[in-house]
Amino acid sequence: MHIPSTSAVACLSLLPLVSAFYPYVPVYPIIHSRKDLYEPVRHAEDALNPRDDSISLGISRTLTRRTNKYNIINSQPPTQSNSVAVDQDGTDFSYMVTITFGTSSEEYHMLLDSAASNTWIMGGDCTLDVCNTHNTFGNGDSTSLTISDKTFSIVYGTGQVSGNLATDTAHIAGFSVPFTFGLASNVSSDFLSYPMDGILGLGRGDSTSNTIEAPSILDVLISESLIKTKLFGVHLSRTSSGVNDGELDFGTPNPQLYNGDLTYIPTIANTNGFWEIAVDDAGVDGKALGVKGRSAIIDTGTSFILMPSDDAVALHKLISGSTQSGETFTVPCSATEIVQLSFGGVNFNISTADYVGRRLGGGACASNIIGRQTFGTTQWLVGDVYLKNVYTVFDFDGSRVGFGVKGEEKAAASSSATVSGSSPVPSKTSPLAGTTAPTALSQQSPGASASPTHNMAVKWDEGSGAMLALMAFIVLAVVL
Ligand SMILES: *[C@@H]1O[C@H](CO)[C@@H](O)[C@H](O)[C@H]1NC(C)=O
Ligand SMILES: *[C@@H]1O[C@H](CO)[C@@H](O)[C@H](O)[C@H]1NC(C)=O
């Protein structure tokens, strides 16, 4: 992986609600096994290379981009129509889809950002280093491109992007639609740390609350009558699984990518365009934290799970052998505990492959659950560390988020559903039925066993949990 050297250190103050490209580089101690020598990891470059050498990156490693200098692992073609493959960088750090514009066949990598509705791409007139390492789009690339005089500016936590609005035909997921987006002529160097050429806004905010005042891709697909339901579904691949099958589905979920039914959770009204839902509780191996009144902002554009310190401390206390270091935590690389987030009455598991991060030495690994308040005191920012474990549906019309257990657990779930005494696995044609077989986290005395209604054979990927991305960010609309 070629990542330009950068020193994007985590020097962020808490962000006001209106802003935020949220590049987060946690500083973990490197623990050497002989002596306890602590050496902070400060460079994004280090954070981006949490690779365990034993992990094979799987099929198609594609490095054919015109100017994009980053390693991007293409996923296999989607298994249903109106869908596009979700690619990633090979470390589960950034998830992107390709888009082409107008008469150009050049592919641009757009980060999936469910926390904002702005879509922009680096422009051809940007001559900064950050643009030279990415694919840019501008005059000369497509004869149908029109660039307007209207400007945009998005101010992020540690940087900014500005330029002009532009219109061209966007080709994505088999659709070709007229689309207005930002063409950035000035991009802050923060983006050197990221492989994407631009950002695809998938937030709930409508166009009037955007910095980029144009209909989102979902708005366009609806207004052009190309999809019937304003929703999208996302499956994010886990590199350590060796299968590059990430997928973004427009208009209808792909039932091949989850088990049985979706559990839907209503969204909480907010003015930020967040996909924010109530968290019932969190826990470890069926033992509940006992937290109340928390909510989760579901963000495909954030690598980590970030929660205020007290919650993160309480959660890690349930993982034996964990240690705290400021806002970061270590967990034993050999940890086998399953971390769970409970939504809509169902415990959703987070694999050790996802929360156990890079090796720090001495058998300690970074925890990819961070003790940091990103927004309110009760709001958790829940990103890819969790989302890789589920198929997620973002339903605008229904004002709800749906989670489905991933397919690899499908067979075991079906065969054990009746054993547990829960209702039979309901039909896929009845999506709301997914809430009928809850496995609530119960508050238990230590040692008491969980009482799962399913007995799914979860394949834990012990020993290969060092693949995790070590940065997180969130992109929010800024009202100018
Ligand atoms: C880009 O934006 C920054 C921050 O606003 C500004 O200081 C700089 O002059 C701009 N550069 C260009 C080339 O416009
Ligand atoms: C979570 O993992 C536990 C233990 O393996 C299992 O019993 C349970 O069914 C899983 N839950 C889901 C929703 O997959």
Protein architecture, described:
There is one protein chain. The chain is mostly beta strands. It has two domains: 44-250, Cathepsin D, subunit A, domain 1, CATH 2.40.70.10; 255-406 and 424-433, Beta Barrel (Cathepsin D, subunit A, domain 1), CATH 2.40.70.10. 8% of the residues lie in helices and 31% in strands. It contains seven helices and 29 strands. The protein has helices at 44-47, 129-132, 217-223, 309-317, 352-355, 384-387, 410-416, and strands spanning 61-62, 72-73, 83-85, 87-88, 95-101, 108-113, 120-122, 146-156, 159-172, 175-187, 198-201, 231-235, 247-250, 258-266, 276-279, 281-284, 287-288, 294-298, 305-307, 323-325, 328-332, 339-343, 346-350, 356-361, 364-367, 369-371, 379-382, 390-395, 400-406. The strands form six sheets. Strands 3-13-12-28-29-14 form a six-stranded antiparallel β-sheet. A six-stranded mixed barrel has the order 5-6-11-7-10-9. A hairpin with a 2-residue loop joins strand 16 and strand 17. The longest helix has 9 residues, at 309-317. It is globular, with a radius of gyration of 21 Å. It starts with 43 loop residues before the first helix and ends in a 64-residue tail after the last helix. 55% of the residues are buried. Mean pLDDT is 76; it is low at 1-21, 32-65 and 409-480. Bound molecules: 2-acetamido-2-deoxy-beta-D-glucopyranose (NAG) (2 copies). The site of one 2-acetamido-2-deoxy-beta-D-glucopyranose (NAG) has 2 residues, from loops.
